[in-house]
Design a protein that fits this description.
It is built from 6 helices and 8 strands; from the N terminus they run βαβαβαββββαβαα. It is of the alpha+beta class. It has a single domain, classed as Endonuclease Chain A (Endonuclease, Chain A, 2-Layer Sandwich), CATH 3.30.870. 28% of the residues are buried.
Amino acid sequence: MQIHLNDCSHLWEEYIQDANDSIVVFTPYFDWILVRLFSECELPYSDITLVTQLDRVDSRSENLTRLDRLVELWGLGVNIRILDRLHAKVLIVDEEHAFFGSQNFTNYSTESIEITTQIDQMDDFDEVFEYFSGLIYIARPVTVEELNEAAGYSRYKSADDDDDDE
């Protein structure tokens, strides 16, 4: 186990780029940094899961930006799941490496005072992975209706809506 007392986004990038099987992120807040991290890895988007929350969204620009990034990732094929009252910030790579702590997956957090714990398979990882696997199981898939409700109006369309336009 290692403790990082500063920005660890460079470590996230390294581990995400080296991912072979899966990437799972739990975070209430994210921006273009997470989109970039996912786009730079070799895994298909379908092997990436993002668990986030929509219960604390209002019309502030950073929330609408987060919704736009969420829709962007969803459109790319990232498995998006919603877990109300999520506060955890976690990255799990290949079910072997995990980072958890205070740092959100945002540009703002790269300049903030943060602390992150890193654990690897050689540590007592099974209990941590089982806990977060259970949370993925109870998190629900995101819907267009939920995204529009969070935005406060019909901002997003489903793929079916796009087909109707043709």
